[in-house]
Amino acid sequence: MTGEVLSGKAALITGANQGLGLEIARHYLDAGASVFVCARNAELLAAAHEELAARAGDADRVASATADVADAGQVEVLVATATERFPQLSILVNNAGIYGPKGSIEEVDWEQWKQAMEVNLYGSILPVRAILPQLRARGGGKIVQLSGGGATSPLPGLSSYAASKAAVVRFAETLALELVEDKIDVNSIAPGALNTRLLDEVLEAGPEAVGEDFYRRSLEQQESGGTPLGLGAELAVWLASPASDGITGRLLSAKWDPWRDLPEHRGDLSSDIYTLRRIVPADRGFDWGGD
Fold first, then answer.
1. Which residues are known to be catalytic?
2. In total, how many domains does the chain have?
3. Which residues contact 15 (CB under 8 A, 6 or more apart)?
């Protein structure tokens, strides 16, 4: 997208000290928004803050704070601080996420498995709970959830990641219906296969932990360069902009879906297009299994 389509708006972006979260923050600044970024690693966050302030050319448009989005108390403080810093805050991007342990469910560390669920799922729910009063008071807003391949495909060896990301999407679909009357749009992004620290973790874990097929595809992804970070960031800008008003409860692929053209198809989006649904035999051409 071009131009300052987010001028005068402010966004809270979690997990924004590197990777896609930082790229989204860059794109939001370029689109005219102010950004409040958070992450757990203070050193990386400080470097990201410095970069973003230089990019904005106006230090007043950038703020940051360390926070663990899986901790309810820290999230309450984070949202209160962000709201005080940017009273016009109307956009939430839940980007923070981890892969979690890699290996078969009976062998992985259970505490690490739970932590991945807490960061990926609770870490996208707690900020929503904290910011909703602010968005309702403003008469609307935008919530963007980051999904991933785990939401739409089984990932042997990465069960906590897959389960949590599927839950993130179904939470977003449910939340979207709850908030229709409040004019708060909620959507999920599948950003594509990104060459970030998560890919490095998979390659380090090896085929024994994540499976031969996934490991092979990860090697190919590394060699090809993966999906550009900018695609997911552009979709995040569009979902935060007025262009997407009224489009809610969808899981959109940054790489494969014609999301820029969706306003032309608003009427069709009252169906289950771009949502998680069960496949029945008739969907695959079989005549058994009932109507």
1. 161
2. 2
3. 21, 38, 39, 69, 95, 96, 97
